[in-house]
Specification:
The chain is built from 8 helices and 5 strands, in the order E-H-E-H-H-H-E-H-E-H-H-E-H. The protein is an alpha/beta fold. Helix 1 crosses helix 8, helix 4 runs parallel beside helix 5 and helix 6 crosses helix 7. The chain is globular and about 40 Å long.
Length: about 180
């Protein structure tokens, strides 16, 4: 897979590598990278944690839906989503209608190591532990699975290996 007509949406829990993989994947495919959280921050001139604090999670989820609607019909995108984008059925439908949804996974211990020093994780700030991450993963697992066309583990793999696996799996999926 060297070119891309449909978009690719990277979903998964925070810390599974969506941003890092998205940057490398978009570069490999010559696609435009869209970092949903970054776009929302820029559009609203507020950090995600401030949006959560001031307006709440439901408001933020509506912003995600609005952005997904803006992306409808656009091709050749790699979209790095926020970890909770799958919590709204409408978001899942919007992503699947416009492209391929790739579910990135990682073990809770690996996620913890990746996010433990990041203070911009509003849902983890007061609960930064492997146990809480396991609980949230368990709560969201079916949402991620129902949204995804393919699932790719990021455990103990290089970014290049992950990107290559995504490309191969999507190529096989298209056949």
């Amino acid at each position: 897979m060297n070119t891309l007509s449909d978009s690719i949406y990277l979903i998964g829990f925070m810390g599974t590598g969506k941003s890092t993989v998205g940057a490398k994947l978009s570069e490999k495919l010559g696609a435009t990278l869209i970092e949903m959280d970054q776009v929302i921050v820029e559009q609203h001139d507020m950090e995600i944690s401030d949006i959560f604090d001031e307006y709440g999670e439901n408001y933020f989820r509506r912003l995600e839906t609005g952005l997904l609607k803006e992306l409808q019909g656009k091709k050749n995108l790699v979209v790095s989503t926020g970890g909770g984008v799958v919590l709204r059925d409408e978001n899942i439908a919007l992503m699947r209608e416009n492209g391929y949804v790739v579910y990135l996974t990682a073990k809770p211990e690996i996620i913890y190591e990746r996010v433990k020093d990041n203070k911009e994780r509003p849902l983890l700030n007061e609960n930064m532990s492997v146990e809480y991450i396991e609980e949230m993963l368990s709560d969201r697992k079916e949402y991620y699975r129902s949204a995804a066309h393919i699932k790719v583990s990021t455990n103990n793999k290089s970014i290049d290996e992950i990107v290559e696996e995504i490309c191969e799996r999507l190529e096989d999926y298209e056949k």
